[in-house]
Write a structure and sequence with these properties.
Blueprint (H helix, E strand, L loop, with lengths): L14 E6 L12 E8 L1 H5 L6 E5 L3 E8 L2 E7 L6 H14 L9 H4 L8 E2 L5 E2 L2 E2 L9 E4 L8 H4 L2 E2 L4 E7 L7 E7 L7 E6 L17 E5 L13 H10 L7 E5 L5 E5 L19 E4 L12 H6 L5 E2 L10
Parallel strand pairs: 12-17
Antiparallel strand pairs: 1-2, 3-15, 4-5, 4-13, 5-9, 6-9, 7-8, 10-11, 11-12, 13-14, 15-16, 17-18
Length: 323
């Protein structure tokens, strides 16, 4: 099986993009939007995208599994961002030049503080020991998900450090359509990136759980393969995302053989998301979480799902936890 790419940086669009002076459909208060042209990005051609693995782009928040204090740990995405004054200067430059290029940062003074445990993402460039921002003015990075941090309570709900396991949504391998939610050892996921999805993440486009019974889980990047993906052609991708039942996804991420990641997002093509049903939310799922109450200290999501062990649901969005 090919080694799937780890999501540590912003992924380039499969098409060359341009800036339009119209309010963004993706970000509130942004008075411009980045849209795709019909020209394929040379980076995609160099990476031989026609032979790449097409996978579903998931709408959640990015996570990472690596060591912390000597044991496998779940880390949450935390990009170091500019303070208000620096952001104002950056946006003025961006508006004037219609580009981010040429802007000079003072890393020590222009960026907000981050926790001591923060680490920069892989491949972040450094100068004089200081991590440098990307073209968007962010320094991608990670912080460990610790139990007492309320900011990451939904991340915490899917991990149990005492047992060393996380709740993962993945294809079963037996049926190309069937998914499973399983308790997976953290050690098996070392150096992988995953997407946290669920009730309280990004407006819950997949319809998981409810306010009273929230459901969250992790999905390894690249694990949900797109069936019969369209060719890398603007019109074919547009039609597939707009009309094909398998195209009810946020976008596609191509995992190229050389490790390069390339993406397309519905917003690049002026298409809404979510727009009614979602392909992932409508897939059948089986619960494979077999634990005892005493085995897991987190007597909540792990235990609730254990009570449903072996149960099949016709749609992911139909999972109902017992109160």
């Amino acid at each position: 099986m090919r080694r799937l790419g780890s999501v540590q940086q912003k992924i380039p669009c499969v098409f060359l993009t341009e800036v339009k002076e119209e309010p963004s459909k993706k970000r509130d208060c942004q008075q411009f939007q980045v849209v795709a042209t019909e020209n394929v990005n040379p980076l995609a051609l160099e990476a031989n995208i026609d032979c790449a693995l097409a996978t579903e782009k998931l709408d959640g928040t990015c996570c990472y599994v690596t060591l912390y204090k000597g044991q496998p740990y779940l880390w949450a995405r935390l990009d170091r961002k500019p303070n208000k004054q620096a952001e104002k200067r950056f946006k003025k430059h961006q508006h004037t030049h219609r580009s981010c290029k040429g802007f000079t940062w003072n890393v020590e003074e222009d960026f907000k503080a981050v926790p001591e445990s923060w680490i920069a993402a892989h491949r972040v460039k450094h100068h004089n020991g200081q991590p440098l921002p990307d073209e968007h003015g962010h320094i991608p990075g990670w912080v460990p998900v610790e139990k007492d941090n309320k900011q990451y309570c939904w991340h915490s709900s899917v991990v149990d450090y005492e047992v060393g396991a996380v709740l993962v949504l993945r294809p079963t391998g037996e049926d190309e359509d069937m998914l499973e939610i399983a308790a997976v050892p953290l050690a098996e996921l070392l150096e992988q990136t995953l997407e946290l999805i669920g009730t309280n993440v990004n407006g819950n486009p997949y319809g998981m759980g409810s306010k009273k019974q929230p459901v969250h889980c992790l999905v390894s990047h690249g694990s949900v393969v797109v069936r019969n993906p369209p060719l890398v052609d603007f019109q074919q991708l547009y039609s597939w995302l707009q009309e094909n039942p398998d195209g009810q996804v946020e976008g596609i991420v191509w995992h190229c053989n050389d490790g390069t990641l390339i993406k397309i997002h519905r917003h690049h093509l002026g298409l809404r998301w979510p727009d009614g049903r979602t392909c992932l939310g409508d897939r059948p799922v089986v619960i494979h979480v077999d634990v005892t109450v005493n085995e897991y200290n987190s007597k909540d999501l792990f235990t609730s799902l254990s009570g449903l062990n072996g149960h099949c649901f016709s749609r992911l969005k139909d999972i109902q936890l017992e109160l």
